[in-house]
């Protein structure tokens, strides 16, 4: 089958397209500047990204700053605790919570945010991404907006924006990449969704992917970002600058890449926004 029909013609994996775009942006040459010019043409006047010193830019596929920063703290529970409260102090509705408001022992502290399972973890302060929505609702549900911000805080440690470009002298660029699906939202599980429905009303109070990315960058990391959505079709809609994959790849120079990259970009039916023949 591999020889009968090349996978690049019908592959639907968004991460492959993200990796291809990141590959092209990392090359020496005009691609990064060209891509930023495409975005600057879509953002409001005065919000354009800086396009100088691009040789110093950093490009990340699946940006995991909070997760991996936490990992550098290793077994230093004092540093972990300080980080949690330093970040909470940046959230307007949560900054009145001070360290002394929470249990001092590690098991009780973990249990406060995780429930009974947290109390069994006795020697390490648990990664905030493992806090549970159920326990947070029990602790903070009487103040739904505070509860929602604690959830955003928890989820911010787990999110991985598809592509992030850090530009010297400019705001970060955070790219949410889709193929056919719409922008996602939190919570994702049925049980957690029921909790949100009970507090905010059915289907309300949800946290959009891009909203969460903006919360992480602008609030927790003190670096408001420029969000961009790339997808196969404009029919997906968004309130942030939007580009199709076809628009992006049409403008980029492929000459420094192996032939497969051109075959993928020019031969993949999804990137071209056309339906796929289901027959193999």
Structural class: alpha/beta
β-strand percent reads 5-15%
Distance between the termini: 9 Å
Computed Rg: 21 Å
Uncertain spans: 275-280
Helix content: 40-55%
User: What's the mean pLDDT score?
Assistant: 93
How many strands, what sense, and barrel or not for the largest sheet?
A: 5 strands, mixed
Main attributes?
280 residues, alpha/beta, five-stranded mixed sheet, two-stranded antiparallel ribbon, 12 helices, 9% strand
Summarize the structure.
With 280 residues, the protein is an alpha/beta fold.
Descriptive notes:
The protein has 280 residues and is an alpha/beta fold. The protein folds into two domains: 7-61 and 161-181 and 224-267, no CATH class; 67-156. It has twelve helices and seven strands. It has helices spanning 14-26, 31-40, 65-72, 77-88, 106-114, 116-119, 133-140, 144-156, 190-200, 209-220, 245-251, 259-267; strands at residues 58-61, 163-166, 173-177, 185-186, 207-208, 226-231, 242-244. The strands form two sheets. It has a five-stranded mixed beta sheet, sandwiched between helices. It has a two-stranded antiparallel sheet with strand order 4-5. Strand 2 and strand 3 (173-177) form a beta hairpin. Helix 7 (133-140) packs antiparallel against helix 8 and helix 8 (144-156) packs across helix 10 (209-220). The longest helix is centred in the first third of the chain and has 13 residues, at 14-26. The chain is elongated and about 60 Å long. The protein starts with 13 loop residues before the first helix and ends in a 13-residue tail after the last helix.
């Amino acid at each position: 089958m591999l020889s009968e029909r090349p996978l690049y013609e019908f592959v639907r994996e968004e991460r492959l397209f993200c990796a291809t775009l990141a590959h092209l942006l990392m090359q020496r040459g005009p691609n990064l500047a060209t891509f930023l010019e495409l975005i600057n043409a879509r953002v409001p006047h005065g919000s354009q990204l800086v396009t100088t010193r691009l040789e110093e830019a950093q490009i990340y596929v699946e940006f995991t700053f909070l997760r991996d920063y936490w990992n550098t703290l290793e077994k230093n529970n004092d540093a972990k605790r300080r980080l949690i409260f330093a970040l909470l102090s940046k959230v307007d509705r949560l900054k009145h919570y001070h360290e002394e408001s929470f249990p001092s022992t590690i098991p009780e502290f973990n249990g406060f945010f995780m429930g009974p399972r947290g109390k069994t973890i006795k020697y390490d302060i648990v990664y905030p991404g493992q806090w549970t929505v159920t326990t947070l609702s029990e602790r903070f549900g009487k103040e739904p907006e505070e509860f929602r911000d604690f959830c955003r805080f928890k989820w911010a440690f787990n999110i991985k924006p598809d592509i992030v470009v850090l530009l010297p002298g400019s705001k970060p660029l955070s790219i949410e990449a889709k193929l056919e699906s719409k922008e996602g939202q939190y919570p994702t599980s049925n049980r957690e969704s029921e909790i949100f429905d009970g507090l905010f009303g059915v289907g309300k109070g949800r946290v959009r992917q891009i909203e969460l990315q903006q919360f992480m960058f602008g609030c927790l990391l003190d670096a408001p970002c420029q969000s961009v959505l790339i997808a196969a079709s404009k029919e997906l809609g968004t309130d942030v600058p939007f580009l199709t994959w076809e628009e992006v790849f049409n403008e980029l120079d492929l000459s420094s890449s192996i032939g497969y990259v051109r075959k993928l970009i020019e031969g993949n039916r999804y990137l071209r926004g056309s339906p796929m023949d289901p027959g193999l």
